[in-house]
Amino acid sequence: MSSLPACPKCQSAYTYEDGTQWVCPECGHEWSAQASDAAPADEVRVIKDAVGNVLQDGDTVTVIKDLKIKGSSLVVKVGTKVKNIRLADGDHDIDCKIDGIGAMGLKSEFVKKL
To answer: Which residues partner with 110 through β-bridges?
Structure first.
């Protein structure tokens, strides 16, 4: 009996290999064989600010560089305090609300934890 992994979507044991992909015949889910060999997907992602401090949800940060807002003439000035941040996945890893501007995403490399 082969040692193919169970389907990550429905946990079916009837998976089979199709080239470089593994396929579940019960739910139709396909995934890469290389992705399963890599590190587990449940790793905790650590987001750090510009000086290396670890950020968490609810932290207060300050902006360390003037940031132009795309599609607008507004600018987030250096020293702007941003309260109650939320960490997010993606290129902009901080979701927040900035007074006078509104909701936006920031990159952690442009902020410093207070």
So the answer is: none
Amino acid letter at 87? L
- Tens-digit pLDDT profile for residues 74-111: 999 999 999 999 999 888 999 999 998 999 999 999 99
Side-chain half-sphere CA neighbours of 33 within 13 A: 11
b/e 19-36 (16+ beta carbons within 10 angstroms → b): eeebbbeeeeeebeeeee
Where are the extended beta strands (E) located within 1-114?
16-18, 21-23, 30-32, 61-63, 67-68, 75-76, 81-82, 86-87, 94-98, 102-106, 111-113
Closest to 37 (Cα-Cα) out of 55, 52, 54, 17: 17
> Is-contact 95 83, C-beta < 8 A?
no
